Amino acid sequence: MIKNFVCSFLLLVIGFNISAQDTIPKNYFRSPLGIPLFLAGNFGELRSNHFHSGLDMKTQGKEGFRIYAAADGYVSRIKISPWGYGKTIYIDHPNGYTTVYAHLKGFSGDIAKETKKYQYQKESWEIDWYPADTLMKVKKGDVIAISGNTGGSGGPHLHFEIRETLSEHPVNPLLFGFEIKDNIKPIIRSITLTPLNDTSYVNNKNIMQRFIVTGANGVYRLKYSTPINAYGEIGIGIETIDKLNGYGNRNGIYTIELQREKETIFKSEMKKFSFDQSRALNSLIDYEYYLKKKVRFQRSYIEPNNQLSIYAEHKNNGITNFKKGDKFNFKYIVKDTYQNTSGISFVVNGNVNKSALPQLITQKFDTLFSYQDSNFFEKPNISVSIPKGALYKDLPLHFHTADTMLGAITPTYFVHNDYTPLHQPIFVSIKVGRLSEYLRSKATIVHFDSRKRYYARGGEWRNNFITAKSKNFGGFAVMIDTVAPKITPFNIIPNRNMANYKTLEVKIGDNLSGVKSYRATIDGKWVIMEYEAKKAKLFHTFDKLPKGKHEFNIEVIDGVGNVATITIPFSN
Questions:
Q1: Cβ atoms of residues 87 and 159 within 8 Å
Q2: Are 84 and 78 within 8 A, CB to CB?
Q3: Is residue 4 scored above 90 in pLDDT?
Q4: Which of 76, 391, 432, 564 could join 371 via S-S bond, C-beta 3.0 to 4.6 A?
């Protein structure tokens, strides 16, 4: 009896928590800024390899605005990085949500003091810290930070998120009642029809066809009246963006619904998502077309291993099978978070002229990989391991070997191409001829993309093979990096009096494997050096340094262990 009561009680509590998370509280959170809210980016906007997980709030093109706690709570995490979110504060609130404030210039009050204290304890400017829930409590409206442009920010602004505390899933902040003016209807620019196998065609072609759209104020139509004919399995897509009042930034769409004969066959909704799923954006869009043309179409059909939770409704994964004589009326209904709505209707006929079809050239491939399994590919001097879940659909893998590139010690092995997206990294192992232990320690696998750019991926040795992870297919070779990083003093020279300088600055860089770590001291004691990656600059802000002569020392280590060190005497 007691056991049944406990089980019933737990189910009641769990059900209450789920229900509470599904009911979004309006006006619980205040604005984190004290100026009118205008957005440079919204929730769910399509970015490189991920969905935008919050709101980019404009700060009038400058840094230094006060950032306020959106509600009562406590600081649950402080993260500082030269990449990504830069300087970031996370605050947990008693209603089950966490607010995130990113790209900050600096922290305020006790948050600044405790963070600096922790950095000196760890002797690291870059930190990911989870302080005790009793250490830094905040009240709604407390000043917690100053707005900035740190990390991967492309200009001064505040990146603001609301997440479910337990799941860490970001939720659309515009659903919480912030005062942001928006009466602009989404813009539709084009639609696409894509044949999904070798026996499918759009207007007698076995490749994706794009159809330009015209119209305004929510009412759109195809620009040209030429009939659209389709045959076989076809997926439909749309190019659409949203705009908000006051600025011309391109923002994301809240819902996209595709109807066929007034029946919904696909609907996506940008209410929330999981960070684990976010990379599947590359399956939502036509990834190859984006890389080549920088245009993102959102597919209204779902590839077999696309696990995105934004798919609210679909029939047959959004795919339509056209037969001769079919005639289907389609309609797109596109909405932003404030329910401003746009639409376009179009007709597709089931038809193909087989006598006019071009002769398809069957492309040879090395092996067919299943998205449902882990896969392994091996040639005499290279092997590739593709974990289960890495592919969005079955892949006919293409492979070839090219000449050795300048600076490489192996041929370049092209494993498929980087137009096919991956959800998880693959493992590439390359055999290398006899090398000394010193040169083995300086070797790195390098990835080449379709634009002939290359990136070091590191690597670990096992016998004569070096193995590294890659998030992309493409070309792979092994290079040797024996060149130490470069340190260039920016505003400090030997014996300079630095009394009138607020900061001490140096620039750093590396030719191949990248900067892995650095450490700076003044008079033998570790000091904070902030890394501004966009400018490849390190800087130390002077704080209570005794008058007199001093010695600055910095050591920089690259990805394969090459070390650079400089020592500069100065005074103040």
A1: no
A2: no
A3: no
A4: 391
* C-alpha span between 299 and 237 (Å, rounded): 4
Q: Please state, in angstroms and rounded to a whole number, the distance separating the CA atoms of residues 457 and 425.
A: 11
pLDDT tens-digit map of 37-60: 999 999 999 999 999 999 999 999
Angle at the Cα of 425 (from 172 to 455), degrees rounded to 5?
100
Q: How far apart are CA 560 and CA 210, in angstroms?
A: 47
In whole angstroms, give the CA distance from residue 454 to residue 511. Answer: 12
Residue 9 sits at the vertex; the CA angle it makes with 8 and 14, to the nearest 5 degrees, is 100
- Dihedral in degrees, nearest 10, Cα atoms 180, 186, 189, 192: 120
Spatial strand order of the sheet with 530-532 comes to: 486-489, 503-509, 537-541, 530-532
DSSP 8-state class, residue 279: G
Q: Phi first, then psi: give them for residue 470, nearest 5 degrees.
A: -145, 140
Separation between Cα atoms, residue 278 and residue 270, nearest integer Å: 12
| Contact assessment for residue 518 and residue 556, using Cβ atoms and an 8 Å cutoff | yes
Q: Report the alpha-carbon distance of residue 472 to residue 380 in Å, rounded.
A: 22
- Give the whole-angstrom CA distance, residue 59 versus residue 36: 9
Exposed, middle or buried, 493 (CB in 10 Å: 0-12/13-18/19+)?
exposed
Q: Please return the burial class of 10, using the count of CB atoms within 10 Å of its CB with bins 0-12, 13-18 and 19+.
A: exposed
Question: How do residues 208-232 score in pLDDT, each as one tens digit?
Answer: 999 999 999 999 999 999 999 999 9
* The model's pTM: 0.93
Domains of the chain: 22-176 (2.70.70.10), 187-356 (no CATH), 367-480 (2.60.220.30), 486-571 (2.60.40.1220)
Which tokens sit at 297? 């179409």
